[in-house]
Amino acid sequence: MTEANQKVTIIEYPKCSTCRNAVKWLKGKGYEVESRHIVEETPTADELMQLIAISGQDMKKFFNTSGEVYRELGLKDKLASMSDEEKRELLATHGMLIKRPIVTDGRRVTIGFKPEQFEEAWGGHA
Q1: Taking Cα atoms as reference points, which of 20, 46, 49 lies closest to residue 35?
Q2: CATH 3.40.30.10 holds for 3-122
Q3: Which of 36, 43, 70, 102 is deepest in the core (most CB within 10 A)?
Q4: d(CA 42, CA 89)
Q5: Helix, strand or coil for residue 7?
Q6: Does residue 62 contact residue 111 with C-beta atoms inside 8 Å?
Q7: In a 3-state reduction of DSSP, which class is residue 9?
Q8: What is the Cα–Cα distance from 9 to 7, expressed in whole angstroms?
Q9: Maximum Cα–Cα distance for the chain, whole Å?
Q10: Full-prediction pTM beyond 0.90?
Q11: Is residue 50 exposed (0-12), middle (13-18) or buried (19+ Cβ within 10 Å)?
């Protein structure tokens, strides 16, 4: 596969400026970007389990801790006592609870967007 057609999936909220910046960055590096709306096509609990495993990150990193839904549900105090399964189910039922964007090529997963993080993960088209 050449660099020009390396494909990634971005799970995003299109109105989110951070997500738009991530898409712009990826396209600028020559990626073919398949966009998926985080609310209309929220990842299932099984998909989340796979994304979390590939990312190597703690599940807490997948929560949008600065979001309205997170605050409304009082999750700051509840997450610690929830099982991983409960957390995944919660994320799968509330797309806006998921930190965005999530980018994956099936072998790698990044959460959120910071140019230096993207450069490390996606800059080399590994």
Answers
A1: 20
A2: yes
A3: 102
A4: 11
A5: strand
A6: yes
A7: strand
A8: 7
A9: 47
A10: yes
A11: middle
